[in-house]
Structure prediction request, 279 residues.
Amino acid sequence: MVDVQDENNPAESPEMIKPACCDTFVVKKKKLGVEYFSLTFGPFSKIRACRPGHFIQLKLPDSQVFFRRPMSVAGVIPQNSEMEIVLKVVGRGTSSMSRLKKGDPVNILGPLGIPFKLPHRNESAVLVAGGVGVPPLLFLAETMISKGFDPEKILFYYGGRTSADIILRSRIKSLGVRFSPVTEDGSYGIEGIVTEPLEKMLNGAKGEKLRLYACGPEGMLKAINNLGLKYGVDGQISLEALMPCGIGVCLGCVVPLTEGGHARVCTEGPVFDIGKVAL
Ligand SMILES: Cc1cc2nc3c(=O)[nH]c(=O)nc-3n(C[C@H](O)[C@H](O)[C@H](O)COP(=O)(O)OP(=O)(O)OC[C@H]3O[C@@H](n4cnc5c(N)ncnc54)[C@H](O)[C@@H]3O)c2cc1C
Ligand code: FES
Prediction:
């Protein structure tokens, strides 16, 4: 899946796009692993507005699941008006999603939030995914490739507990990016936690222009935020929070900022510059 968005200027802060609330259908479902699924929905009227880092609030046709669930956009097929999400089953909402079938109706509110800013052409992009944080970074890598960025200048670190947590690996490899899978038990790729080889690379990358992008569990994001500050590498992290509304109304998703005050992850985020949020 690729996107045909206009290139954004990394120096500009992207504005939040007016979301659509759209009844649509499951057009494709794929099992990606024991607990992982890809779902493609369409048609969706705002497909051309979707950027890597955007998310949707998904309403399920399940009376037991009242609140919408936030899901990152994992990819788009603009010519078909279709959008993909990738999910891990963790509770009632995601379990209900995993039971959806082709043709089932859903309601999508989106695209929501502030997306990633693309890197400058002279920078290497260092993407760091942890577990089910991979969807927005896969979308970012695919978007960069579709825009002619050099795949050799995209470093894709992907950490998981075991081999089973490193999903979509052939799709990532097919992009030709520098792929570094890392597992805690060593069952696939480098053994350890993803921030270890990342720090080794940052430490050895004297003079190289880098930009970090990360999405994953809070502990990993905190470590990457600190590494960015320690090595003077700019970048962005995509945060998760419980999101009752997703549109800035309920204040259920606020996080403290380093400069004081708070921000809503759903509207001022989920993508924040490194150093912005007090993690
Ligand atoms: C902006 C954003 C993008 C996201 N993108 C994706 C994605 O692409 N794929 C994906 O699988 N998941 C994604 N998530 C996480 C996903 O929304 C939650 O896992 C989901 O809402 C859980 O719903 P549930 O009903 O299955 O679980 P629940 O029954 O609500 O919860 C199950 C367990 O997960 C915990 N939990 C629930 N939501 C979160 C959360 N947001 N962060 C941390 N812990 C949580 C609960 O405390 C509980 O322990 C995203 C979250 C956000 C905020
Ligand atoms: S989820 Fe309601 S304000 Fe962010």
